[in-house]
Every structure is written in structure tokens, then in C-alpha cells.
Specification:
binds magnesium ion, 36% helix, 152 residues, binds inosine-5'-diphosphate, alpha+beta, 4 strands, single chain
């Protein structure tokens, strides 16, 4: 089954929204197969946001991502990368659709509370960036047959 990498940003942790976001993940039927709290540093952020290092807002982005620990999650599900990006909503939270995590819980273009991998290829890279192999638990939940039809 496909996996994706999620970060609950300091703007989520500091606003006491960890439980709200994890609740949405659980209620949707996504499987949490890795979860830990981490303090990020500039080294890992320069890798993670390598597509943004030349942007003028990169120093502020780095500072905002180091303002408190983050919660890293590895989620598993059928088509989970695209399903979860839909749940996250647009980058600028003021343009994110109601019903999405950003659209319901945040108001900023930068402090948008959550990161999610944007492609299956990047998800593989990002999971290995934030998790050691022994921190991923590839178990099968007992209720899986009530989440997916056989053969799905
Ligand atoms: P994404 O998080 O929706 O995948 P990216 O373009 O990958 O969006 O940007 C990564 C993060 O960088 C965003 O979530 C946001 O926190 C920040 N960011 C992106 N664009 C801007 C901007 O124009 N101004 C300030 N921060 C930005
Ligand atoms: Mg991105």
C-alpha cells in the first residue's frame, strides 16, 4: 500500500491542533504507520525545502519550522499521497477549500500547519529523510476489511 510523509508544523503544535489533525487522519481510515516528535534544524530543512532555498521567504520558513518541535507521521493507504494532499488543501490557507485541514484550521500562506508529500516519488524520499526503517510499523489493522472492499 502507498505511503506518505506528513509533518505537523510548529503552527499546528503550538496551537494545540495535533489531536484535531490526527483525529481527521484516523476518521478518514488512513493508517498511521510511523509517528514521532522531532526538533528540525537548518540542515534537514534545506534538504526538505530544497525547491525553495532561493526564495526570499526561505529564512522565515526555516525559522517558522524550527519554532517548536514538529510531529512527523508516516501514513499508509490506497492512493494516500493524492488523497491526503486533497485533505490538506491549497498552500495559502486563505485560499484552501472549507473542509480541508488548512481551510478549516488556519489563515496563513506560510503558517499553514501541515506538510504532506506531493508525489509518490517524493514521499519515498521524504519518509527516509524523517524516519529510520525501524520506526515504520507495517502492520495490518484488524478493521482493514471495513475500510476497503476486497480487491480494492
Ligand atoms: P506545500 O506545503 O503546499 O506543498 P510548497 O510550495 O511546497 O507548498 O511550499 C512549502 C511551504 O513553504 C509552504 O507550506 C509554506 O509554509 C511555505 N511557502 C510557500 N510559498 C510561500 C510564499 O509565497 N510565502 C511564504 N511562505 C511560503
Ligand atoms: Mg510542497
Amino acid at each position: 500500500m502507498e505511503k506518505t510523509l506528513v509533518l505537523l508544523k510548529p503552527s499546528c503544535v503550538e496551537r494545540n491542533l495535533i489531536g484535531e489533525v490526527i483525529g481527521r487522519i484516523e476518521r478518514r481510515g488512513l493508517i498511521i504507520c510511523g509517528m514521532k516528535m522531532m526538533q528540525l534544524d537548518e540542515k534537514i530543512l534545506r534538504e526538505h525545502y530544497s525547491h525553495l532555498v532561493d526564495k526570499p521567504f526561505f529564512p522565515e520558513l526555516c525559522a517558522s519550522m524550527m519554532a517548536s518541535p514538529v510531529v512527523a507521521l508516516c501514513l499508509k493507504g490506497v492512493d494516500v499521497v493524492s488523497v491526503f494532499r486533497q485533505m490538506v488543501g491549497a498552500t495559502n490557507a486563505r485560499k484552501a477549500a472549507p473542509g480541508t485541514i488548512r481551510g478549516d484550521l488556519s489563515m496563513s500562506g506560510s503558517l499553514n500547519i501541515i506538510h504532506a508529500s506531493d508525489s509518490v516519488e517524493n514521499a519515498v524520499i521524504e519518509i527516509s529523510r524523517f524516519f529510520n526503517p525501524n520506526e515504520i510499523f507495517d502492520y495490518t489493522p484488524a478493521n482493514l476489511k471495513f475500510i476497503y472492499e476486497a480487491g480494492e
